[in-house]
Design a protein that fits this description.
By secondary structure, the chain is an alpha/beta fold. The protein has 23 helices and 16 strands. The strands form 4 sheets. It has an 8-stranded mixed sheet with strand order 9-10-14-13-12-11-15-16. β1, α4 and β2 form a beta-alpha-beta unit. α7 packs parallel to α14, α8 runs antiparallel to α9 and α10 crosses α13. The longest helix has 35 residues.
Amino acid sequence: MHPVIQEVTDRLVERSRPSRTAYLARLRSEAEAARRRGPARASLGCANLAHGFAGVGEGDKRDLRAGVKPDVAIVSSYNDMLSAHQPYETYPAILKAAVRKAGGVAQFAGGVPAMCDGITQGRAGMELSLYSREVIAMATAIALSHDMFDASLMLGVCDKIVPGLLIGALHFGHLPAVFVPAGPMTSGLPNKVKARTRQLFAEGKVGRDELLDAEAKSYHSPGTCTFYGTANSNQVMIEVMGLHLPGSTFVNPHTELREALTKAAGRRAVELTAHGDEYTPVGEVVDEKAVVNACVALLATGGSTNHTMHIVAIAAAAGIELLWDDLAALSKIVPLLTRMYPNGQADVNHFQAAGGMQVLIGDLLDAGLLHGDVLTVAGRGLDHYRSAVELKDGELVWAERTEGSTDLDVLRPVSAAFSADGGIHMLNGNLGRAVSKVSAVKDEHLVIEAPAKVFDDQLELLRAFDAGELDGQDFVAVIRYQGPSANGMPELHKLTPPMAVLLDRGQRVAIVTDGRMSGASGKVPAAIHLSPEAADGGPIALVLDGDPIRLDAAAGTLELLVPADELAARSPHGAPLTDAQWVGTGRELFGAFRRAAGPAERGAGIFALNGHAEAVANGGRA
């Protein structure tokens, strides 16, 4: 084991000892009760149980009434507006049949919302996106709250959906949980062509019809978007955490292999219940080693910066206190092993063809960068995930893959990494703490010192770009009041094309924001998730146009080059929207979330007592 991996893990264990001990005590008490009483519903009263099986078919009703067979909950994010979740339309019937064949009963326990940042970007609905993670977690808890279930099958793919499902599942940590992916759509328009069309549109050189044609050729069918953003980063992390069946992450929808893996997930959920020989509670799977493994996988693949918040919130749900300092330490020693758009021109299908998760996990294990001695839904040990899966005579067969990557432009071993670190850097300075995704940034752009141009909304920057007010000058764009407690921390996707245009013209530009950019982070240097945010009185609220800012993503520093006494004499500029102003598209329903949201570096959640949540619990704001 690499010494830094072990040191970070040891610190995480020690720091989390009180909260993790309390979490496991509750989990194990519930697990012991489950073993004693048999299937969960055995403790229900007759009226309660009758309600629980009234809607199922006669065969399942007999089995549920008998109180012998395990009952598996299906929790799904299906909707047919979102390509990633459309394949889930047929999964419940497939899973019910597979569970029945394995000796259990499956019930569709509940649906969770799934919204798409790709659709809501630049719109008011985007301001609900991060909050939807908490809604999904709560909806998952409601689905599992009926004391009917002995395990769960979690159906979700994209940005906030998988973290929300996992947070919800961890609050029922004594239940096994198998996550069931739907897979990516097949490759469409090359990413390089799509990105170039977006820039041409930003410059006014092509029209809406040409841009829409390009986008429709890129996002063209059921399945996950193929670029390596938050959705596919979710999938990588969940497999490395041992919550997928090995090799199932990037199998395309509507293929024989995809359907066979879905059936296998249903069978496996039955085998993992407390009433079989392989009882595997999800709260035991997601331990400190699994959390570190997820962080390593994120860094090694240059994954989405959104997960610098999501993995913190997921860990907290399991009683584990992960800090950005842990990610910073790991980032220094975890090499970048993949090039997928926006960090390269390949997509996840190319990654899968090059060897995919099996090659990635095997190489990281061999290099001592992953903990192998972990519990997974496939059994004890991450070595299960070295295996590639295929269909032979209609049966799933897993076999260890002995060859390495077949495309070194997409996937490399540790010995020939694309770079020595994982491409996500933590920044510190007098402006606060921030995250910077540097895997797609050229070396010559990693450091910039330039005057600030301050905006309180991304639309203000877009208007300035359209008016030519940003031409011919170096600057650091400061976009503030975009944090969790200001307006839900929307992703600022629309900043990327115009800022990339200016960079290509030879201007030195960068972005500093308390908002998100996630998978949209590309070749423009950016310090994002800045904490404390402007709405909490963070120093970003003191920045004025013309103030010099130095962003050094290589050294990990972010400094406002203004004397401390001058800053101390300033008052915050601007303000977040008031509750009366923050209305429309349902935003007014989420006022309580705004008031309770914690800071980005603590997961931007509303459940853990940190940041705003602690202040609200004490009767006031932070």
